[in-house]
Specification:
heterodimer; A: alpha+beta; Ubiquitin-like (UB roll); six-stranded mixed β-sheet; 6 strands; about 15% strand; globular; B: alpha+beta; Uridine Diphospho-n-acetylenolpyruvylglucosamine Reductase, domain 2; Enolase-like, domain 1; 13 helices; 11 strands
Chain lengths: ~200, ~325
Amino acid sequence: MAAGAIMRVEQNTQANTQTVSLPSSTKITLTINGVRRELQVEPWTTLLDLLRLNLDLTGTKKGCDHGQCGACTVLVDGKRINSCMTLAIMKDGSEVMTIEGLAQNGALHPLQQAFIEHDAFQCGYCTPGQICSAIGLMREGHATTADEIRESMSGNICRCGAYPNILAAIQQAMAHRRNVDRVAGERSVNPIANERSVNP
Amino acid sequence: MNNFSYTRATDITSAVNEASREATAKFIAGGTNLIDLMKENVARPTRLIDINRVPLNRIEETKDGGLRLGALVTNADTAYNDQVEKRYPLLSRAILSGASAQLRNMATDGGNLLQRTRCYYFYDVATPCNKREPGTGCSAIEGFNRMHAVLGTSDQCIAVHPSDMCVALAALEAVVRVTGKNGDRAIPFSDFHRLPGDTPQIDTNLEADEIITSIDLPPKGFADHHAYLKVRDRHSYAFALVSVAAALEMDGNKIKGTRLALGGVAHKPWRSKEAEELLNGKAANSDNFQAVAETVMHGAKGFGHNTFKIDLAKRAIVRALKHAAQMEAPR
């Protein structure tokens, strides 16, 4: 799938766009980490490939590319999904948040900070997906106990086996949020967070 | 993944029209199975018809007091829906025992019914597979078949349907509502999926131009006495080796009605009315449940690696019925 080579950002002049043969490419609009972007995509480009190959947002990782490992987890309209199992064109008009969009004004998101404090990774390859998934988990508000958090994070594999520390980091971030009304940044990046996110 | 055209349908009629124009077109909703199959070159549609904007994403009460699940409601929104949790907890439990949180956020209820088997040979285009390429043979029958079916198999195919949700829907006797060129149909859940027979390439009785519009749950939800037991190789995020949806109507310790459906053992969620009727008017106890298990699994046939499923299923049936009757607590 040579999606990356052919996709084009719409900032190009009309003339430039016409020099590329794009019989089936379509213009879509995505708001990525708060920035609205008009993009020209081919139907078979996954959201993951669009982010990594075309927009250089390489924080989101490609692991299995089959929805099994969770390394590609991002938030679309506030919900965690596998970006490898999603065609970019299907998400036209959506808001996408990736690991690059979490820190606000130079301050790490509390989950990012918690991952550092709890040493919740070794190689780090799964970490962006783990963190985006955990943000989704906290917004959903269904998991509270350790067992529930483990179950709800089962779509994110860590081959280094940092699971106990990942769990501890998530629990710290959840405690942090119980102590503040809102986690700064999360809301400003994604205004569509569901109501449950306010009161986990 | 092959190149393909992409169309967006915004209403049911245009979706059906698009599908009937091009035999090799496919609907896409959540995409969690189709995109995977396309990456493996198992599915090679010439056109995807994106139905995500068709307004079928609501859960609402039906006139008969049941609940209508729009085909495009996500698995997560279904499992956590207040009405589903309260009135159909069996369905909620089954959905949440499948896939991962991310996939459940994407996958739709209609798509769940139409997902294809995860048979390794079906996915591996280098091997013969009657489901993928009719007439080439079945690699699983004499190959690795630990995940495969022990009931309702044919000499063409021993694949299993992978869904958890569908096992609960079978027990609840849901109705699948569909629309096609020839109008609307309501398909009883037990008639929706097929056994492999001589046409393992056809998973369901849905016509090519038909689209699922909703899955209707009858009023009876078995909220008081139900269990979904899933036995698998990992504690989470794994397909079932055997799963059991059990639902009972009880009067004291006496059983007035039984619904039992099995996953992981056949090409469709497996029910045995004969076994269910054994419990009519009987007491909830181990002996009676054991008799049910023996009847359900009568005629089961193992293929070597999966032969363990026969005994496993019997024990799972007894345990699920005990959970449903509240004779023992689920762990």
